[in-house]
Amino acid sequence: MSQTELAGFGGVAKQTLISYEKGSRRPDVEFLTGVAEAGVDFAYLVSGKRAGARVVADVDWQLLGAIFAGLEEACRTLNIRIKAEKRSELIRVLYVHFAADRAVNTDELHRILSLAV
User: Fold this and answer.
1) What pLDDT digit, counting tens, does each position of 84-102 carry?
2) Is residue 10 classed as helix, strand or coil in its secondary structure?
3) What is the pTM of this model?
């Protein structure tokens, strides 16, 4: 799949996608949802490692979206910038942490984020 195709699935310009790849911008929930709905291996997109169809199919996209939104809000509130490599690992940890409840506890997310940076 080309960068232009991937950008189109996410509803962004190719240059925006390139800025995501470089780590100078972060994708929003709409981009991630769009590419996931197009069948892109989300685990590979975030981590660079292939997850396989079963893992991707089992992702709770609503929870993942809430984690992205909560993380963005927490970073703004706490005035924190997180590098792309660290952000993807943090999202994975947060997903595992909040998966049992299938919901994001904002206070707990802030606490975890303050410990992570």
Assistant:
1) 778 887 888 888 888 888 8
2) helix
3) 0.52
